[in-house]
Amino acid sequence: RSIFFLMIRRPPRSTLFPYTTLFRSYQQMKQKPFEMSTYERNRYNSMVEECNGDKQEAFDYWLRWKIKTDLFFFGNDILGWRNACSKNHKRWRVDPKLHRWMAGKLMTKEDLLLLISRLHLKTTWVKLSIVQDVLCDPNIRIGLFSTTTKLVRRELTDIKRIFATPIILRLFREQIPMPGKDFKNWEKSTLDEIGRASCRERV
After folding, report:
1. What is the pLDDT of residues 158-191, one digit of tens each?
2. What is the pTM of this model?
3. Dihedral angle at the C-alpha atoms of 184, 18, 85, 100, nearest 10 degrees?
4. Of all residues in the chain, what percent are helix, strand and coil, respectively (each to 5)?
5. Average pLDDT, the chain
6. How far is residue 37's CA from residue 40's CA, in Å, rounded to a whole number?
7. Contact at 8 Å (CB) between 48 and 54?
8. At CA 100, angle to CA 146 and CA 6, rounded to 5?
9. From residue 30, how far is each of 39, 55, 78, 164 by CA, in Å?
């Protein structure tokens, strides 16, 4: 599967604003439960039965399932991107209609060419899609390409930050090893991959 974004001219300045990432805590999630469709509610109730009535354990199972199957929910609700806004707090950064559509396209298994103007968080959602793919299949291999190694390092750091989000570490603790201070526990394998890629580029 390949996804390409074609950059077109930037939108008017009035539509641009800085991007800030916020995260919801697990306590906030319990205090403000997510809205569930009838299907999702029935699935949650089935999970409660499977967990012998343990609603917290069932809720964790439901969250894992939802994160793996709904990219927009992952970013908008779990990571709290819906709260990202401009510095003057006058504009929201995530457009539910646009980014729900974009997330849906990123979850398809077919090759795509999407035409979206700059500064609409395309790279941000692609990185989240990579995280989702790894959570669904820890053995998957994904190619992340850019013009320079430095840019790839920066994108990999962002991806590691998503993996290191407390709620993700807790929900997927069997899949994600603890990162350690400054991602020290993850550093060697990442640098090895970058090093091999750099050698191939020079060859």
Report:
1. 898 899 888 999 999 888 888 877 777 776 554 4
2. 0.74
3. -80
4. 60, 5, 35
5. 76
6. 5
7. yes
8. 35
9. 20, 11, 12, 21
